[in-house]
Amino acid sequence: xxxxxxxxITISVGFLAILSFFSPPFEPLGEDFTLxxxxxxxxxxxxxxxxxxxxxxxxxxxxxxxxxxxxxxxVGFLVMLVAGLGKIGAESxxxxxxREGLFSTLYYNVHxxxxxxxxxxxxxxxxxxxxxxxxxxxxxxxxxxIAAFIILLGSTPIGQMLTNWMPEGMSILEIPNLAVWIMSSxxxxxxxxxxxxxxxxxxxxxxxxxxxxxxxxxxKDSG
Amino acid sequence: xxxxxxxxxxxxxxxISSVWAYVGKINGWHHGFVFSSSVSLxxxxxxxxxxxxxxxxxxxxxxxxxxxxxxxxxxxxxLPLFMSIDQPIKVSDEVxxxxxxxxxxxxxxxxxxxxxxDPASAPELQPMAxxxxxxxxxxxLDMIVLGLWPMGPQQATMAxxxxxxxxxxxxxxxxxxxxxxxxxxQAGGEFVIQRMGSSFESMFKSDFRGTPYQDLPIIKNVKxxxxxxxxxxxxxxxxxxxxxVQVGVDRFGIKLGAGNTAVQAPTVYPYMGTLEKPGQLVxxxxxxxxAAEIEKLTNLKGKATLFMLxxxxxxxxxxxxxxxxxxxxxxxxxxxxxxxx
Lengths: 223, 341
Fold this sequence. Notes:
The complex is a heterodimer of chains A (223) and B (341).
Chain A: H1 4-22, H2 27-61, H3 67-85, H4 101-133, H5 139-154, H6 157-163, H7 175-184, H8 186-210
Helix pairs in contact in A: 1-2, 2-3, 5-6, 5-7, 7-8
Chain B: H1 3-26, H2 37-59, H3 66-78, H4 93-103, E1 110-116, H5 122-138, E2 142-147, H6 152-166, E3 180-185, H7 190-196, H8 200-203, E4 230-235, H9 241-252, E5 256-260, H10 265-268, E6 281-286, H11 287-298, H12 303-331
Parallel strand pairs in B: 1-2, 1-4, 2-3, 4-5, 5-6
Helix pairs in contact in B: 2-12, 3-12, 4-11, 5-6, 5-11, 11-12
């Protein structure tokens, strides 16, 4: 029964979800399923928060490598949680915590600059990686390199400044126009191919799950 | 002197100068630094010459390390912030499509804006949000915002506060509940969009402040997407534009414009149409350049326009170092000496 019950649930929910999408009389069922998803998502929040606490408390107690960072994680998690749920510093329980209270202070002065800083670091790593690894090793790599140059220049006003002297009839050769062409033709074709491939893969995997052929999600003893 | 010591000294100097500049500006000691056009030109020439020098050293088999690359990127990103150079910004058809969606609306029309990003992507997406909200205020459109990312609603509040301050407006001019509402974050990704298709109220019983749905004049008559005139999605990943297209556009027929990070924009291009055949997206703003273009269209010049010079400098530096790296590669008999440097 440990295998049969989850299989029955998967098969019946799978078929009903398909029916609710394609058959109007079953449409309300789809609505109900989305509600079930919300309820499960709420449990996932608790599970996620609990797991974060468990992992970092364990690291702290056993003094594992870099345990000091666990203190920062735990303090950050708990302070933001209490500040948000308790609306600490806000005038009343109905106050907008995006505008007042400890939560907004921490969000705008700690979380926001830290998040932006982490993302900004990408510029440095991308530049360093490009310098060390972006090589015209063969024909394909050379085409990629040229496309990268056009996109890099085309997404800034410099690309326009470099080629805006071109006559009207040759405007397609202006760097910004070339960049748009790369994005809307070769890139689009490639992206569509990837999306169709992913779509077919999802359909195939979903059918395997619904028909009970794919059972790895049941665990090791799924047979 | 050890490399680590030099790094620490440079870092300390940067921190001290940043704190001094910030405190000075707050206390009115100065009104920010702006280089004149001549000084800016001299800086650019010096940068270009130094790159030529690095190229010459590379030809002499004296390669530069990654710290030098980091230094150049740091300089390329920060110095342009103090330069007074105007750059021409050409508006693409994709960005014009997003703007046209707003232009086509009558005053009082309802615009749904989904903030599906967090602070990490804010430098690219926040200027787009501010420009879109500014245009909505200018055209007297009703703004309904929500977030499929937990931090989305905060970003919306921040964008609205910033744009109101820049336009010199107060809370009496843009009345919460009548002109603007923040429905907050809702977990569930595409399932949220799916349920909004039949009933907004079933998904958002109250707004972000806890006000019941029916007590908010701006949305009390909004049942589902059929009452929304235009939607804009600002997204940095999942859930985001792809989900809004697949559920909101394909299933419920909403009119959607999107703003994405530069990394994500290529993946949503398949949803853009052509001149002959409109696509699932009416327009697309991609990255910092997309943000600068929408700022130009809305006449609300902000951080994106300012940061475009930094982006231009950084892109040129990256191209220069790729060329230098390739010179080293071909000079070294196609055996890169830079690997692992």
